[in-house]
Design brief:
The protein is α/β, with parallel strands linked by helices and 335 residues long. The chain is built from nine helices and 15 strands. It binds NADP nicotinamide-adenine-dinucleotide phosphate.
Length: 335
């Protein structure tokens, strides 16, 4: 094979209008430089936080992906060609590569990790095992510091990060409540994931429902969205409650500054701490989360769902799902 299909960023997207921003093109595969690998992508995971890379920000945070670059994504694939002594052709790996059918990566930068071929489902390497799992595992346990019997609330609860976070909190002994955007999602988190309660934020009065389900206040809020849901949460935090700030789904597609939270005062009244965190901060402890996830999977204590879109040419469909609520579990592309 001499050619590959790649998604390249051609201009900065406005809101959710991703189609004009990306171009899907066939191009020659260059000779590998010393140390590089050519990976045949099998699955590509979609991550909502990558929306930050598409903004033209100049504050030094999350340096924007340069125009013309191939879009970066996490993948599981097979090494097709290796120019690196430590990696052999045919090895199954997880890596940060490109939205493409073939990725060219340098292991020094791409977080290449050899997949255990004995695992039942290799997709778990972009699911429970690896960075997605780390976000939820460390976000709940290290940032949230749950104690048995405490009340735990998570937003975007039926997505990748939220569905894992709720289960980690449940395993830690918390009463677990999830917020999501459809009744189907609420049914799923309660019946399959073991959440105690669910709130459909598109239908219910979120603040009233939180009061009903958390009469003694929320001890830990795992926030994936911020925006109006955070404002509904703040007055309902327990004294000395903790907010683990994971992400800002409500504003990733916003143009210009985002106002709020309006109920900021409750951080003071309730002596609440709010801590932002990033999963790469926990890279050095990844093995700890991976081992636990594998154990919980084997014991049937945790489950994970993939929302699969077929064909690398449909990557934008899979990407957009996260911003419109079209996914249940992790949105991935089967290349
Ligand atoms: N801190 C870290 O290191 C880290 C790492 C990974 C992910 N994250 C964060 O985790 C969050 C989820 O990311 P993910 O990749 O796992 O995606 P995901 O949860 O699988 O998909 C995103 C979900 O967010 C919900 N959503 C979208 N817009 C919303 C809004 N305005 N208000 C409320 N809910 C909304 C949608 O479901 P509904 O139907 O419920 O609306 C959608 O399914 C993101 O904020 C991301 O940045 C953080």
């Amino acid at each position: 094979m001499n050619e590959r299909w790649v998604w390249r960023l051609q201009r900065r997207p406005e809101g959710m209008d991703f189609e004009p921003a990306f171009e899907f093109k066939s191009e020659p595969i260059p000779d590998l430089a010393p140390g590089e690998l050519l990976i045949k992508n099998i699955y590509i995971g979609m991550d909502a936080g990558t929306r930050n890379w598409l903004h033209p920000r100049e504050d030094g945070f999350d340096v924007p992906l340069p125009l013309g670059s191939a879009m970066v994504g996490i993948l599981v694939g097979t090494i097709e060609e290796s120019n690196h002594p430590a990696y052999t052709k045919g090895t199954l790996v997880r890596a940060y590569g490109q939205w493409a059918d073939y990725s060219i990566v340098n292991p020094a930068e791409a977080g290449v990790f050899v997949v255990d071929p004995e695992i039942d489902d290799i997709r778990q390497y972009i699911g429970l095992i690896g960075p997605s799992g780390w976000t939820s595992y460390f976000g709940v346990l290290d940032v949230g510091k749950p104690k048995p019997g405490e009340t735990f609330l998570v937003s975007a609860a039926a997505g990748s990060t939220g569905s894992i976070a709720g289960q980690v909190a449940r395993i830690a002994g918390c009463r677990t409540i999830g917020i999501a955007g459809t009744d189907e999602k609420i049914d799923w988190i309660k019946s399959d994931l073991g959440f105690d309660e669910g709130i459909n934020y598109k239908k219910d009065d979120v603040e009233e429902k939180i009061k009903e389900y958390c009469p003694n206040g929320i001890d830990i809020y795992f926030d994936n969205v911020a925006g109006p849901i955070l404002d509904a949460v703040l007055p309902n935090m327990a004294i000395h409650g903790r907010i683990a700030l994971s992400g800002l789904m409500d504003s990733y597609n916003a143009e210009g500054p985002v106002p709020g939270p309006y109920k900021f005062e409750y951080l003071l009244h309730k002596r609440v701490s709010i801590t932002g965190f990033f999963s790469p901060d926990y890279f050095h402890r990844g093995d700890e989360s991976d081992a636990r996830m594998r154990q919980w999977l084997d014991e049937g204590l945790i489950t994970f769902r993939f929302d699969e879109t077929n064909g690398v040419e449909n990557t934008l469909v899979a990407y957009k799902k996260m911003f419109t609520g079209g996914n249940i579990g992790k949105s991935i592309v089967k290349v």
